[in-house]
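call fold(seq) -> tokens
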Amino acid sequence: MRFISLAGYSTPIFWVGMMGLLVFYAWLNWVGGAGRVDMAWDGMVENRTGLLLVDSLLAREWAVFFSALNHLVLPATILGFHSLAYISRMTCSFMLAQLSQEYIITARVKGLSEFRVIWAHAFRNILVQLLTVVALAYGSLLEGAVLIETVFSWPGFGSYLTGSLLLGDMNAVMGCVLLVG
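ret:
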């Protein structure tokens, strides 16, 4: 688990996205490729909410819904894996620091079960630190969304920021950077 979380957090997210496209789309054909939906279904659903999954459900276009869901699996998995790797590494280091404390040794000597020692004593004491890490991971998700949307050709926050950078629209760039920060 340490190796997987270290590899998940230290590998650039755009590279993982490109390798995911190569392996799971090009070689295995398990997920949809770039874009929000297959080319055959593009423009089939009226844009009411801006969310293709919700719009296709409202229009009862099941083929569009499943195509959009298929195209959503890989980017969402990569973003989630990147954040989960960071949170799991930090949780592990926080727990290792807490489990070496004297009050944990005292609780074990008293005869408390290992489950109770870990969850009632050690984990409860790292919750504030863990909440901070989860909040920082949210900012990392927005940052990663910029790169993932660029790799997967998704219109969204990332493509808006990238387009604003290329056009020199500094007000939009500053607003996006403020939101991520």
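The helical segments are 2-10, 13-27, 52-58, 62-99, 102-109, 114-151, 157-167, 170-180.
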